[in-house]
Amino acid sequence: MDTKNTFRYEWKPYFVAIIAIAAAAALRVWPLHVLGVRLTWLTFYPAVMVAALYGGPSASLLGTFLSCLAVLFLLPVFIQQPFIRDSADWLGLAVFFATCTMISGVAEAMRRAQAREKQAEAERDRFFTLSLDLQCIAGFDGYFKRLNPAWEKALGHTVAELMAKPYAEFIHPEDLEATLAQARKLSGGEVVISFENRYCCKDGSYKWLAWTCYPVPEAQLIYAAARDITERKRAGDEIKELNRTLQARAVELQESERRYRLLFDDSPQPMWVCDQETLAFLEVNEAAVRHYGYSRQEFLGRTLREIRPPEDVSAFEGYLSQRGHSDHYAVATRRHRKKDGSVIDVEVYSYDLNFAGRPARVALVYDVTERKRAEEALRTSEAKFRGLLKSAADGIVIVDHSGRIVLLNPQAERMFGYEPGELLGQHIEILVPERFRAEHGKQHDKYFSSSIHEMGSGADVFALRKDGSEFPISLMLSSFESDEGPLAMSIVRDISERKQAEERLKKHAAELQALNAELDAFTYSVAHDLRAPLRRVDGFTGLLLEEYNDALPEDAQRYLGRVREGTRQMGRLVDDLLNLARVGRKEVNLQVTGLGSLVQEVVAELKREAGGRDIEWKIQSLPFVECDPALMKVVFINLLSNAVKYTRPRQQAIVEVGTVDKDGQTVVFIRDNGVGFSMKYADKLFGVFQRLHRSEDFEGTGVGLATVQRIVHKHGGQVWAQGELDKGACFYFALGVQPHSEPEVPSDSGKETHVAR
Question: In the chain, N or C: fewer CB atoms in 10 Å?
């Protein structure tokens, strides 16, 4: 609501109500005081009605309330007697209150009716503006009073130019007298249903317009709608020319029936001749028989009414009554029904003919069903396009070859900070920062000068808002053809938040990289610093045992042996830590490597270390993969040595190496029949220094599986395990990006699988 109306509806209605009631009270005191207490409420009814009509129900209710206060408390003071004396007076008060409430309701209904009328008027204005037909309001004075935009598109004149002169100046001289005659009819209140004349275009050419006019004499106005029928007239002229040609050859056709049959029967379009009075078919050609499905005899036993859908017959009768069979030539769009019941849209060109001595009409029929469907599909497609454009989550901007914005969606307007419609017709460079405009112009010209416009992949560039601020966008570019030529469509997405997130991720990654480097350096330094004291402890305890072995008590010798074993275990831990740190620092050198050859090398080494144990090796065919062969050998050394170690209690040890396929990904597994582990502690398997068995039973440092996990992760893969206590274990790994779901692999235990990522 504008400022004026806001001001009015905030306080004016109530002020008017107060003034009206005050005026009524004053009149009741003087000069109507002579009435005494009689007819008290009649004085206030007009005041309440004024408040209701001006301010609506709120002001009316305020007036009612003030009237009651005045009658009950104020007026008795002036006339020295109460107005409410008995139950009848109270009843009058109740009737007054109820009547005023009804007045409030009626006032509100009137206001709502006015609002609906305004809305209907707005809808009519919208229809008037958006209509493809030429809509106008003309005065009896010969001037246009209002025109819709279709006039500018049809004739080329601006609306101002058309309204500045009498409309007679735009009419073809040959049509002027007939047009003025129709205008006189309209001035007399007669409705003109169908009238045609020619209007001058701005380029000097003329267009045929078909008019439907409705006069409003009391307003001295004519409401009219016109349709451009130039193309139809041109086609009609062609048919008329054909008619004149046929008439010129009428004598020849009468002399030679064969020549007439050649013209009629061999026409590729359906043609027929019908009686002007009865509308019965007198003759049909073969094209009509083929197209409609009726035999020639069936056609000749019917009339024009019978090939129309039942619902169209009444309209056809109305057309015939208006035409009166007097039009020598006519073009009409109709619906016809074939023998199989299907309905088709047709254009019928007909003219008078004397057939066998009786008045008849010959008709040439064009089936335009497919064209109608195509037009409807085009309208539907355009509606869907605009709907998709409006509902798209990203901004969409469409420009022509000159760089002018011809269409954009609300999301783009909001993104760039413009009001609706403000960007239409503007050059696209209004959205490009100044420093990029020269290069943008070159790219634009290059894009439209090329005969092949390919879909552009998402490019990150900068855009300019209305307030002058720049922001990063992701841009997708494509093109399509239109009636106005090639158009370019840009799909724009604001990536400010993504860019900020990327910067935060880069900073975080750099911090993590520096922290990992510091951690690796610290681990390497600590491991190296531990070597020297460990060697000294091992050396001195060894000297004690060699030099003073006989002099030492048995317990002391045992203690020194435990010290030496602890230092060696500590040394192995240091070595494993150094290996783990080296794996973290080492760059992956990818090569195509046969996993089978790596496994064979590791198995050969383990056989020498097994000391004659009975181990059955089941090695399946392994694939060639892209990996770092040195690191991958470390993986097999750790996994296979674990299999050998934890099958030591078995009289017959079995170690199996193979692959399974999961969603096209190769998964390698190492299975053994050793002591296994409980899945309850599986989350500790790949942690540093995490062991599930006592060191007294099985030696180890708890670093091997952590090393395996780090190597697999450096290859972009994952490693996991499954097992059951005293029933063996199986370790799996896959290189490359893997799905989060666990692969279905063969398992003897059927237990759940733990995945380490």
Answer: N
